[in-house]
Each structure stands twice: as structure tokens, then as C-alpha cells.
Amino acid sequence: MGSTLLLIGQRLKEARQSVGYTPEEVAQKLGISTDDLLLFESGRKSPPLSVLRKLAKLYGVFDSYFYGIDKLKGEVFTLLLDKAKELSLSPETISQLHRFIFLCREIVQLRQKLGILKPEIPRYIESQDLGELLESMGIPIIRLPLGKELSSAMVCDESFGAFILVNSDCPNPNQLIAHEYARILQGEKAHINAKDCPKAVPLRSRTSRPVSKVLWELVLKAVKHELISTSYAGDVLEVSPMEIEEFL
After folding, report:
1. Per-residue model confidence (pLDDT) at position 169
2. How do strand 152-157 and strand 161-167 relate by DSSP bridges?
3. Is residue 248 part of a domain?
């Protein structure tokens, strides 16, 4: 077995276990056999690219994760996932937390490529639109559908900066942002607000694009400077390369 296949298999298994799916559940969702999935995870069979892409979406990661292209580590991300496991959140919700983490990492890496310093965390600001104000200062507010069991979350690291996640289906997002911003000011590294979001729809699949002014601006700037391709930018923002061209 080649080392690449073994790496892909290991990453596939780690991603599935981290989210909390059984092999049978994944096979059923993708319409493949459990035997094939286990062969992929053992490194004894090469998964088709189409299957890898479906698995990436199911687990909330980028395709590149399966090839080991995930160098940026951080204690805060591990803390966030540990908190999610303690709360016994559903695999679908944990998948969205994985997605949030990968977008945080992408923002950090884009800043490094563009030579942009980590933004300082503003202290005790007040605004009717706190999210817009924080993003204007470089603090990403990432809005994703999180289902009914999760309203918001945050991670904050001295090296990477602060990132806030908000359930795009919840009313009063400014209140949720203020809640996580207060946690950041209190010095917490990771936090999950697991209050029910009654107006949210059940989380079944990843269909909504990530919404963050900071993320979009960094991705488009990186494309303009030819640091990333329009294809890769489309993968991050979940739009087509043609749409990226229209935004430029």
C-alpha cells in the first residue's frame, strides 16, 4: 500500500470518528457500501475524487485535509471540539464546527500569505451592529446554519486572533455576537453556546455558503495577488470559479 493511500485512509477515519458517524451511517448517506468505505479508511483502496468531495462536505473539512495539507494547529480548536463532544452534539452539528475551524485556519493562512497582521481585539465597544463593527476591525464573524442545538461559538488564541461563529438561522444575531465577544474579553479560549435556537430548521446537509466579510475580502484579495487560484477560492467560499471572476 502506498504511503499516500495510507495517509488518506487515516485522515478519512479520523474525520469520521471526530464527527461521530459510524461507517454504516456514512455509507448510507453517500450511497456506497460499508465495505468500500472501510477499504478506503484502511488505505487498501483509492477513493474516487467524487467520493472524497462528498466525504469532505459530510465531515465539514476541505478536500486537502485528506492529503495531510493541514499544517496549522491550535489548542483552541481542539478545546472547541472537546466541548462539543462533552455536550453530545449531533454529528451534523459537529460537522459544521469542523467547517468553522477550517475557515478560521484558512483566514489565518491567507493573512500570512498577504502579510496582514493579526487584528487586535477591541476592548469594550458598543454598537447597534456589533458584527459589522467587529468585522470592519478584522475580527471574523462567520455565519453558518447550525441547526436547533447550537446558537453560537468562539475561539480566541494569542497567535491567531479571535473568531466568532453564529447560527445564521437564529434571530437577534447581534445578541449572540455580543455574548461571544464578552467571552473573548473575559479571556476564554473556546466557548460553545448550546442554547436552543427554536426558529432554526433541522440541520441535514451543508447547503448554505459561509458568510463573513473578512473571509470574502481575504479570499478575493489573495486571488487578485495570484496567491490562490479561482478554483481554490471557489472551494473556500463555496461558489463557482465563474462567480469569483464576477466578484473581482
Report:
1. 86
2. antiparallel
3. no
